[in-house]
Amino acid sequence: MADSVTSRSWMTARLSASSRAATSAAWSTTCLLYTSDLGILGAKGSLFLTRPTLPTYTAKRSDLEAVANDLFSVVASGAVKIQVNQTFPLKDAAKAHIALEARQTTGSTVLIP
User: Fold this and answer.
1) What is the pTM of this model?
2) Residues 51, 4: Cα–Cα separation, whole Å
3) Cα–Cα distance between 106 and 113 in angstroms, integer?
4) 47, 29, 26: which is closest to 38 by C-alpha?
5) Which H, E and C letters describe the chain, residue by residue?
6) Predicted confidence (pLDDT) per residue in 72-88, tens digit
């Protein structure tokens, strides 16, 4: 079970999990999960929580290459569609960062050389 939306939907999903379920969370700084809420994981049947991070799984060069190869294979197969909703000339990279930080973008943002 995974969730990357909000702390409320995260907790709702956890409350519906079966006993001893494993879960991961990919929330951002906009989704706060308060540690006092974690006690409910035990009460609901020894649920497990992990917060995986990309650097942990790609610390070794060989792991990074394997993950990248897997990603590019899935994209090349057409199983995953990448939605590019905006592009910026490379010379406007600063504008792209401003737009991203201001949450004025959706999907992927691509810098064009």
Assistant:
1) 0.50
2) 11
3) 21
4) 47
5) CEECCCHHHHHHHHHCCCCCCEEEECCCCCCCCCHHHHHHHHHCCCCEEECCCHHHHCCCHHHHHHHHHHHHHHHHHCCCCCCEEEEEEHHHHHHHHHHHHCCCCCCEEEEEC
6) 999 999 998 888 999 99
